[in-house]
Amino acid sequence: MSRSYFWAPFAVSGLALFAEPAAAQSASTPDCDLPAGNYVMVFTVKQSCEKFVSTTQEDFAEKLNAIIDLKTPLAINYTNVTPAGINVRFNGVEGTLRFVDATRTLTVNIPDIGYTKTFTGFDRFESIQLFWDELATTDLLERINRQQAASSPTSPITGVGGLIPTIVSQEFNQNFTDSATSIAAPKATAASGANINLIGASLLYGSFTTKDENGLESDVKVKTLPLSYTFRNDIDPRRQLALNAYITQVDISGASLTSGGGGVSYRFPMTDNWTVVPSARLSSLKSDDLATDAGAYAASVTSVYVWQAGKFNVAMGNMLSYNSSVKLGSGQYASDPGITNTSLRNGLLFSQPVRLGGKRLSMEYSVVDTRFVSGTKPYVDNYQEVGVTVGTNKDAFSSRSFVRGGVTFVNGRGNRGFTLNIGYWF
């Protein structure tokens, strides 16, 4: 059998670049627990162990291949006939790989997904390759990705900055918080020139700290560029067809992922104060670092109700969204992990006029609650946001441009942080 690296195609050329492993742990030092990190392993021989930490799955696979192929020397005494055990954590999913006695048979056990299987190759290295082949040709990777959604706040599909939470956030922002009609008081007639369409561009930067049930922390940085084009009806500018797209780049403690997608929505005025906005979106995600290549779609409906309360304009937004993963790519990691869920996102927006530097502006204060209420429940199953922005007034009947910027603080299960945002509509 030829020696291939399904998860580490450049492993041979990269072996010399490995950092030195942590010092071996002897029997008198009982600390052979998994160390902090999303991709880690503890290699145990008899009563001694060594720990390895990787930021990406590719580096993780390269290190494991190199150890089994005796390309990376260990401080502990390992040979290709030594009984050995390897405890691993693969972005929230833990398992064991074991060579019993002097055999070349590898036993893999992943309890969280009910997976146990043995692999016997020409030697131990080939047995490891048979396991990588299993990931490439069966639904094992999909099952791992589905378990990550339930156990890891950094799941690329459902974690912080992940595909589905980003879709849900983009839908709500487009239909409520970023809308030109979300806060402006209704008017009986449109002003001249109100039918001019709107182009929107925003930039968001988020910084978060996540923590799983074992106390493992990760730093997550999220950069998002949303774009939109809104067609306003000539007769009633509150009737709006919006086309939107976004691209997001996420860094999870050194591992990167990129996602992007597009959507469409239409705003139906039901009364002077109430509008309903159905929308749909299709997005995709790719990350070699996280062994994930998947897509997702969402269909949602948002209700927006506005009213006057003293000096404040108030808007209430309520969104129900159905979200589902789907296979879109054809690469080695392309899969559909079978994640489907329903989410609720509800918020209040308060606006008041202010004067800053002699200019008439408006301050907006928002509180938003997001919950995944049915289907595949992610580890970060709810989070709350409190935000403040300042800028020019948003009005469905105005032909003028508007700009807003501010900050939003986020807190939820296993997640806390903030997002800075600035947007311009013209």
Description of the structure:
The chain is mainly beta and 426 residues long. The chain is built from five helices and 18 strands. The chain has a twelve-stranded antiparallel barrel with strand order 7-8-9-10-11-12-13-14-15-16-17-18. The N and C termini lie far apart (62 Å).
Topology:
Blueprint: H1 11-14, E1 39-45, E2 48-54, H2 57-68, E3 84-90, E4 93-99, E5 105-110, E6 115-120, H3 124-137, H4 140-151, H5 163-177, E7 198-211, E8 217-232, E9 240-252, E10 255-269, E11 274-287, E12 292-309, E13 312-326, E14 340-356, E15 359-375, E16 382-391, E17 402-412, E18 415-425
Strand content: over 45%
Distance between the termini: 62 Å
Q: Which segments are poorly predicted (pLDDT under 50) over 5 or more consecutive residues? A: 1-29, 180-193
How does the helix and strand content classify structurally? mainly beta
Biggest sheet architecture: 12 strands, antiparallel, barrel
Mean pLDDT: 86
Give the beta-strand count: 18
N to C succession of SSEs: HEEHEEEEHHHEEEEEEEEEEEE
Number of helices: 5
What oligomerization state is this entry in?
single chain
Which strand order does the major sheet show?
A: 7-8-9-10-11-12-13-14-15-16-17-18
Instruction: Give me the Rg, rounded.
Output: 26 Å
Shape: elongated
Tell me the helix content.
10-25%
Notable characteristics:
5 helices, 12-stranded antiparallel beta barrel, mainly beta, 6-stranded antiparallel sheet, 18 strands, disordered N terminus, about 15% helix, about 425 residues
Short description:
The chain is mainly beta and 426 residues long.
